[in-house]
Amino acid sequence: MTPQDLVLTKTGVRFLGRMFPCTIGRSGLVRAKKEGDGATPTGVHRIVGMFHRPDRIAAPQPWSRAIGPRDLWSDDPNSPDYNQHVCAPYSFSHENLRRADPLYDLVLVTDWNWHNPVPENGSAIFIHQQRRSGYPTEGCIAFDRRDLRWIAERIVLGNRVFVPHQLIH
Length: 169
Prior knowledge:
By secondary structure, the protein is mainly β. It contains 1 helix and 15 strands; from the N terminus they run ββββββββββββββαβ.
């Protein structure tokens, strides 16, 4: 592991020599992720993209993509676009990336089940803003808004995200 890796520990995520409190999925950590289980998948993931709401925040990186009103993420295992960015209109089940709340104002996309997705193995495993401190996610890793921004300003495409099977100190 290197300082550029995001490493989940018992006390938060370690990145670039700093520790950031975070929340994970309501069902904890799992090795075998399933769609809708509310768990954060363990393993080594990579950052493969970033989205931001340009009407709310400036792009933290030149490679961040602006979220528009038609931007969605497919979470339907029956869709050929499962676990991919899609645009409205879209007839399969999906998540809106442009939300009324600030959860997805800034989103780091991981490669969990992403490049060649396996149906039912989980989708939309992102790094995003917390609802509030300590409130669990549906399987993502979430941070305070300021901490997420700090991380996003320094992250590089391909950075690794270590989610160990058992949390370490």
